C-alpha cells in the first residue's frame, strides 16, 4: 500500500492543504487538537471531492445504461464470432463507436477518486510515522497525533502493535473496536448500495451478463473492504465510510428521480408521476415534461410500465402530447344518451347486434310476422278502379298473384312446363334431393 501511495505523492500537497484549511475552520469551533476538528476536516474533504465528481457520476450513469442496452447485441457478436477473437474485438469496438458508448466511463468516478484516496493514505501514514508532509508542519503534526476519534488515534491501524498504539496515546483494544466497527459499517453500506442497484434499478426484462457481474460485485466489494480495511488508518476509514454513505444517498436519489427504464424503480416513479399529473391535470415542472416527452417519443418501443402510464392517462381523460404537455382528451369523454337511445354529445352510436330468434319463430317464417303486423295495424287492401269500372285489388310490385287459387294455377303451370324434360331426369333429381315421387303439393308462397 505504501508503494502505491508513493505514486500519488504529487497530489499530497493539495490534499494536505485542503485538510489544513478545514482544520482551521473546525478547530476554531471544537478545538485544534480534538478528533472532531480533524475528523470533520476529512469528511469535508470527501464531500468536496464528491461534489467535483458529480459530472463524472452522471456520465457513469449514462454509460452504465448504455452498456445495459448493448448487452443483447454484444452477446450476439460473441456467439457469432466465438472462434475468431480478433474479429469479435473489432465488432465490439465498432458497436461502441456506433452507439457512442465507452465501457470505461462507468469506472470514471472510482478512477478519478483513487489519487485522492491514496494521497490521503500517504498523509495519514506520514502522521503516524511522525514525518511532516505537504503543508503539515511540526505543529500540525503534533496536533494530528493527539487527535482521537472515539478513543482511537487518527493514524492508528487495526494491525498496529500495542507499543505503537500506546505511543499515539491510546490502547490496542480501543483501536481495534473502533476500526472493526468502521470496517463493518463500510462493508454494509457498500453491500446495501449494490443490492439497491440490483433489486430496484436494473431492467428486469433483459437478462444479460451485466446483471451477473453486478450481482457478483455485490458480494465481492464488501469482502474486499473487510480484508483491506484492517490495513487502513482510522482517518482513511473515516474517508472511505463517508464516501460510501455519500454514494448510497446519491444512488437513492438517482433511483427515485431518474430510474433505469424497465426497472422496478421506474414503475414506482411512473406511479407517482401519474398521481401528480392526474391530480393537477397537467405536468407540474420541466422535469415531468421531459419525462412525458421521452415516453411519447418512444412510440411502440415503450416498455410495460410506460404503456401502463399512458393508458392510465387515457382512462383519467387525459392525453400526453409530443411536446410533453398533458391535455384533456375529447375521445375519453363519454357521450350521454337521450331517451331514444341516440348520443346527445354528437358521438356515433354503438352498433347493436340483432336479437336471436327462437326456433318456433324461424319455422313460422315471415308470414306469421306479416300477419301479426297486418292484424295490429288493421290495414285493408286498397281497391283501384279499372278502365271498365270494376274494382280490382292492387298487385304488389313483384307482380305475384295474391289469392291462393292463382298461385296454385301458377304452380301447376310450372309443373306442366317441366314435363318437357328428358325421361327420368326430374325423378332422378328429386330422388337426389330426397323428395317423394309423383305429384307434389304446392308449397306455400312464403317457402318458395
From TrEMBL:
Alphabetically sorted, this entry's keywords are: Cell membrane, Chaperone, Membrane, Protein transport, Transmembrane, Transmembrane helix, Transport
Record has Cell wall biogenesis/degradation as a keyword:
no
Q: How does it sit in the membrane?
A: Multi-pass membrane protein
Residue spans of biased composition, Basic residues class: 352-364, 429-448
The Membrane insertase YidC/Oxa/ALB C-terminal domain is annotated at 38-255
Write out the function statement from the record: Required for the insertion and/or proper folding and/or complex formation of integral membrane proteins into the membrane. Involved in integration of membrane proteins that insert both dependently and independently of the Sec translocase complex, as well as at least some lipoproteins. Aids folding of multispanning membrane proteins.
Description of how the protein assembles with itself and partners: Interacts with the Sec translocase complex via SecD. Specifically interacts with transmembrane segments of nascent integral membrane proteins during membrane integration.
Name-wise, this protein is Membrane protein insertase YidC
Q: Which organism is it from?
A: Streptomyces flavofungini
